[in-house]
Amino acid sequence: MQSYKLVKNENGNNRFKLELGKYEIPQPKENEILIKVRAVSLNFRDNMVIRGDFGEYPLGFTPVSDVVGNVVKIGEKVNRDDIKINERVTCNFCTDWIDGKAKSNYENTLGFPINGGLAEYMILPADAVVIPPSYLSDEEVTTLPIAALTAYHSLVVKGNLSKDQYVLIQGTGGVSIFALQIVHAIGAKSIVLTSSNEKSERVKKLGADFIINYRETPNWPEKVLEITNGVGVDQIIEVVGGNNISKSIEAARRESNIFIIGALESTKINFDIINILAKRINITGILVGPKKSFDEMNQFFSKHQIHPIIEKVYQFNQSEIAYQHLESGAFEEVLTVKCPTGLFDKNVSKEISNLINPDRYSEYINKINKLRIPTLPLIFRLMFLIEIYLICSRYQKKNVYLSELETKKLNEKLLINSIPIKFNLIYSNKFLIEIEITYKITNNSELYKISLEV
User: Fold this and answer.
1) Phi then psi for 187, rounded to 5 degrees?
2) Which region, left, alpha or beta, applies to residue 88 given φ > 0 means left and ψ of -120 to 50 means alpha?
3) Fewest Cβ atoms nearer than 10 Å: which of 1, 176, 219, 384?
4) How far apart are CA 238 and CA 230, in angstroms?
5) Buried b (16+ CB within 10 A) or exposed e, 202-240
6) Distance, CA of 437 to CA of 381 (rounded, Å)
7) 420 preceded by cis ω (within 30°)?
8) Closest C-alpha to 245, from 212, 213, 224, 271
9) What is the bridge-based pairing of β-strands 88-91 and 121-125?
């Protein structure tokens, strides 16, 4: 498989750099699963890792925390009915934080020190695996584990956000944009701090109620108090750190919440605690959230049909460019999409065009009759799809993965667009094709499983 690893950087500002290489596909141990990665997203923490902000650490691990992929192998003693072969999954960032209080700090987090998702395949701990909302695209799902969950766990779980509250959101990074979307969905009032008129227009379209350009208005706490009739805000997403926290305290109302989720300016704080005592302010450090909050957030997002904002999508071999984009200050998330060799390779296009030919139906009659499944035309077309898989596999000499877009294109061409079908292709010593077919006959849903060895 192809995978990026972190290696020493002899030139440049960062302590480490990405190096692409070929490695053996890892195998899941007990309570682990193997996924084929479909997409990852980059966030501020990924820059911290490559810069070396966490100090010296063993090299040769795969970076990037946020990932989505399909299950291709399940290890022993995995005791979860919702984890199945080919199921689309993501994973909680803190892999040992399932519920309640966090079990550790950074010892069991994806992307460092645990191998991340900037590879074709990845091992995940089964207990931390999350089933994402089905309405979201792969790219959208990858933004959930860190940015979305940090915002949700802060405002909804810890802050108990209600529609009668004011929320101050600093900046337009990943967490801040999700915070804005959550506030808007609940119906609370949002005040967004930003540095440019261009970003102001973008957050306005996302539903921001009030926008303050902090470059034009350095004394922005005064403006916040004006907006809230001198009361202050109920909750604050604090991303700057340093001396900025003093301003956040000034803008906060009595018994409010300040959630520290970043330190763009400085990790050092120097302020007078009198205002904190007088206002009885709760200041909480947030390191993402537990799997339980992740599952709850997915239900919340599904209910309100929230779609993450994606600035740009990159191909797998453009990962270094994506990191550079992130370092320059992205509006929201930067995506690196895993793109295995395309299904419609020029070497196989002619054979595929020959396959999708009604004259060849007769070759499959005997096979189809043995299956004893109703709606035979569906099975005819499915057999062609199987053969397409085999042709592509022979040329690529590795597993073929069919993306959602490619599935849609094939379904349209093969006239099975209304039938939900799951595909799984495994290569060991020989090809083993496993197909699940689910479709409706009258009012009943029927599930058929077919296994073919070639």
Assistant:
1) 100, 10
2) beta
3) 219
4) 20
5) bbeeeebbbbbbbeeeeebbebbbebbeeebbbbbbbbb
6) 12
7) no
8) 271
9) unpaired
What lies within 8 Å, CB to CB, of 442 at 6+ separation is none
Q: Which distant-in-sequence residues (6+ apart) come within 8 Å of 135 by Cβ? A: 302, 305
How far apart (Å, rounded) are the C-alpha atoms in residues 288 and 183?
18
Indicate if the alpha-carbon torsion angle 392, 398, 399, 403 is positive or negative. Answer: negative
pLDDT tens-digit readout, 212-246: 999 999 999 999 999 999 999 999 999 988 889 99
- Residue 274: is it exposed, middle or buried by C-beta count within 10 angstroms (0-12/13-18/19+)? exposed
Confidence band for 79, pLDDT divided at 50, 70 and 90: very high
- DSSP β-bridge partners for residue 46: none
Give the tens place of pLDDT for each residue, 415-424: 444 444 444 4
Q: Phi then psi for 321, rounded to 5 degrees?
A: -65, -40
Q: Distance (Å, rounded) from C-alpha 414 to C-alpha 360?
A: 14
